[in-house]
Design brief:
82% of the residues lie in helices and 0% in strands. It is mainly α and 219 residues long. It has helices at residues 2-9, 12-44, 49-64, 67-77, 87-112, 116-124, 129-159, 171-182, 185-218.
């Protein structure tokens, strides 16, 4: 068993490369999904059914589809429509679109529970439209939804492992490559699991700091 770990550790460069790819894919997905999620949430809250219903339908559909199937659809299905994307682009698009639905639902829930008194006070001081959103609504949305969006980032991190099926060289792909070459499955995947765990611990520590800041702001 110790030999297996020595063999796996000897290829630490593959793990680090896979970890780096996992991190930047997850970070890019979080940024894109957060921006798009805020936009979709705004559409879900509009009074116009012609806009609200498609946005709500998109969110419901994405939340009902397993990410693995959606990644397959993007990578293997789009070429049927003459849209050919490489594995990196397909993986990022699949992650971003899929998790946009979850972020949109988080933001929508936070938005509907905002304090109406502060919004009305902002209007009384002359804020309206974009200034009202930027100065009054957005800060409240940030502190209300960031903890949940932070938890969603952990799901993004874990879903990125599915991208190995479309040959994106992320962390799970690196672990699979090492174990298939040297047949050290236990050691290879344990190392990958530990790396995922360490990244998750860092994310959780950052979330606690944000939650503390939110509590201080509310005090």
């Amino acid at each position: 068993m110790s030999r297996d770990f020595l063999v796996a550790f000897a290829h630490y460069d593959q793990y680090l490369s896979g970890l780096w790819n996992t991190l930047w894919l997850s970070a890019a997905t979080l940024v894109l999904a957060s921006i798009a999620g805020c936009f979709v949430a705004a559409l879900m809250l509009t009074r116009h059914k012609v806009v609200r219903l498609p946005a709500t339908g998109f969110v419901d559909a994405m939340r009902c589809v397993p990410f693995l199937l959606f990644a397959y659809l993007v990578y293997y299905g789009l070429p049927e429509l003459s849209i050919r994307l490489d594995s990196w682009t397909s993986g990022l698009i699949a992650l971003a679109v899929y998790h946009t639905a979850y972020v949109a639902e988080i933001v929508r829930g936070a938005w509907t529970n905002l304090s109406r008194e502060q919004i009305e006070a902002g209007r009384a001081f002359g804020f309206a439209g974009l200034p009202l959103f930027a100065r009054i609504i957005l800060p409240q949305l940030f502190f209300a939804s960031v903890p949940l969006i932070g938890n969603q980032s952990i799901y993004i991190l874990k879903d990125s492992a599915f991208l190995m099926i479309i040959t994106v060289p992320e962390l799970t792909f690196a672990a699979s490559s090492v174990q298939s070459t040297y047949f050290v499955p236990f050691a290879s995947f344990v190392i990958a699991m530990l790396l995922y765990w360490l990244v998750t611990l860092v994310i959780e520590a950052m979330l606690k700091r944000v939650e503390l800041a939110a509590e201080v702001r509310r005090a």
